[in-house]
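Dear all,

This email documents one entry for the complex benchmark we are building for the journal club exercise. For each entry we list the sequence lines for every component of the assembly. Then comes the predicted three-dimensional structure of the complex as a token string, followed by one or two observations. Please use this as the template for your own entries, and keep the labels exactly as they appear.
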Amino acid sequence: MLRNTDRLEIFSDGVIAIAITLLVLDIRVPSAKDGQLFHELGSYWPTYVAYVLSFAVIGIIWVAHHSMFEHIEAVDRGLLFTNLFLLLGVAFVPFPTSLLAEYVHVGGSNAHAAAAVYSATMTMIGLAFTAIWYHLARHPELLSGDADAANLRRSIRRSLVSPVVYGLTIGLAFVSPPACLVVYGLIAAYLAGGPSSRALVAKPLAAMRAAATGQRPPRPTRAADPDPSPDPLP
Amino acid sequence: MLRNTDRLEIFSDGVIAIAITLLVLDIRVPSAKDGQLFHELGSYWPTYVAYVLSFAVIGIIWVAHHSMFEHIEAVDRGLLFTNLFLLLGVAFVPFPTSLLAEYVHVGGSNAHAAAAVYSATMTMIGLAFTAIWYHLARHPELLSGDADAANLRRSIRRSLVSPVVYGLTIGLAFVSPPACLVVYGLIAAYLAGGPSSRALVAKPLAAMRAAATGQRPPRPTRAADPDPSPDPLP
Amino acid sequence: MLRNTDRLEIFSDGVIAIAITLLVLDIRVPSAKDGQLFHELGSYWPTYVAYVLSFAVIGIIWVAHHSMFEHIEAVDRGLLFTNLFLLLGVAFVPFPTSLLAEYVHVGGSNAHAAAAVYSATMTMIGLAFTAIWYHLARHPELLSGDADAANLRRSIRRSLVSPVVYGLTIGLAFVSPPACLVVYGLIAAYLAGGPSSRALVAKPLAAMRAAATGQRPPRPTRAADPDPSPDPLP
Amino acid sequence: MLRNTDRLEIFSDGVIAIAITLLVLDIRVPSAKDGQLFHELGSYWPTYVAYVLSFAVIGIIWVAHHSMFEHIEAVDRGLLFTNLFLLLGVAFVPFPTSLLAEYVHVGGSNAHAAAAVYSATMTMIGLAFTAIWYHLARHPELLSGDADAANLRRSIRRSLVSPVVYGLTIGLAFVSPPACLVVYGLIAAYLAGGPSSRALVAKPLAAMRAAATGQRPPRPTRAADPDPSPDPLP
């Protein structure tokens, strides 16, 4: 008897929360000779880098998912299955993370293949977001009233940035896996500052301000608040 | 103090979300000689097929479970324990998935046994759904007002399709495990397009349309909306 | 901003759902010679028995926890930490389950120790429930209005049944581990039919009936409904 | 369509519940010769100590997180990402727990390194809490009306206790890992009795009392209720 979008969000949050927490299972306790544990732990730096990268990516996916569902008021079959496709990608992330950590640690030409698999996974996840936005653009009856056609087209275009850039890193993987790690970090930083997380917070803050204006005097800190102007759609 | 069906749905969603996400733990990082990683990864194709199949099946189970609970307004002991029986089956899925992946990869006559165990698990899960529908038919006081006896009988009959077909694949397992994989995929495709996912989305959309008619002019896309006419019960 | 008991229930449900689903990780894919998979799987029967027993026990714990929180309206520090102690026990269950499965499979005198550890874990969980009831009896301001002192004393006494019986199986473990498995099953069956699951469903059904009486004519099946009269507290 | 803080709390609860439950995966079934299982299990005491310590710490983190969100009414990007940073730390806990258990069991100088890594992880988690409080102090528009500047400064100061003490145990790790275990336990006991858990329960109880005063006569137990006076902010 929970509402449709509520249960879809709770289920999606469950899968995303589990995937992000399972990442730690790839960090194995090394067997080290006496006095060698710090050295041994240090040699596994690709594992920690991969852990933080994937944690950041999944965290950003959660923010983007959350932000998207701010605009969704009903669920249809297409949304259900494009969302499941997205979750398939997110739940898969621990595997390429583990692969990347292992073969960047081992080195050699297998590191190229591992980075390519990681890039391909992220490309697929990005395309799943595009597929959901495209489906929403064709079924605007699923959205709340504040979505218009121009905003939806903009959301589709924006959702292509991430799969295109991740797609290019598939090529980069065959040149330099460490360069891939750097680019992955840059993508994460870009997306963390992107419109999804802006839109997510804009509405509630705006609502609070409207409420505050009517009900109590503005607080001093509000005037200096440097929040960016919200995009209507992420 | 959460409502009964709410907490049952949240708990069920938790188990289903965890089971679907644990599937990835069966995809192990292979140890490959330098330059052999792509080749090595490719040899594990049964693992990826099994992963996608089981992900799809559990996703469909979630949709069917959700769809069923749209009609349920109260919980009794029988519903509690038939639902736990269903969750026992869902939580078990990672094991036969792993078994199937391993022994289709290894080949030989053990692949027959592995496919048979997978088919038997899915048959059990299907029967758990039948048991729940049967219990609901005997206790219609648990359902919301829009359920009638004819619909309930139809739901019981429909819920038998999946265990009967999966049951037949137990026999097929001893003929050809790869043929089983194909049939599993066909069952998933059939169920994904089946009445459960149709019913799930029909009600909220209908409600939205009713609300829209009264409150704002219809949007252009609505006229061309090819949504199927909803079944009252999945 | 979620209500106190809501968030405590959601967190508890999360831990219980994860623990019940992690049980499957103890069921390992055996390595079998060609044609030996069924035989090999069969030799692991203690694993399946332990899986089903622990799944049933955790399922019953969820029902009892849910049932208890039907009566709780506020949370204090004592409730918070006795509940965490309960969750510590529940989250631990996969370990003794695995231990029991392994050493009943291996046989020998270690099976005695494994069964004793399993029994001790269940005894602790039972005592955690007693501790929570005892705390509630001393702080009735946490409960909703329908709880009275006599009912609370009865709940404490009832909550002692399970730890006392499980405690006795610690002794039985040193006589016969297979007998322990049988007794564990009997305890689960007793608890599944016990007052917790009765109380859980009694209130909503009663509420529905009251509502139905006022709003629509009784349905035919209702007259023959064999539901037991509800206990006010489990 | 779930409210912002609701979904942030549900996601955070999910990650915390999963991390606390995954701890059990570090407790492996030992292989013991016949009759040696109790002895073998006993030799793994650091595993059980580490399990209980980390379970307690994560439980306390959950209480502190919950308590903090009692005061939060809106989410901005800074809160989103400082909260993700906190979850990164919590989700990581199973690794240093496993490391600590393994190398205190093995002994030797590696136990120093393992305890230092554990202490450093806890220090980071403590600093994540400080970062969130600091962010809230700079953006009081995110908080509900009952938070004032003096309380926020007090909350920041208090949130520094835990990272400072854990930070000192990084040094202690190089002197005596067992002493670290003792100090970890003392910190957990201190935090369990600290202002977070007090604040958490004070508001609902106070609300209940106010409601009770207006609606029904006070119960006998209420007069003797030894609850501490609540702090407005944890």
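Observations: The longest helix of chain A spans residues 110-138. Chain A has a mean pLDDT of 82.
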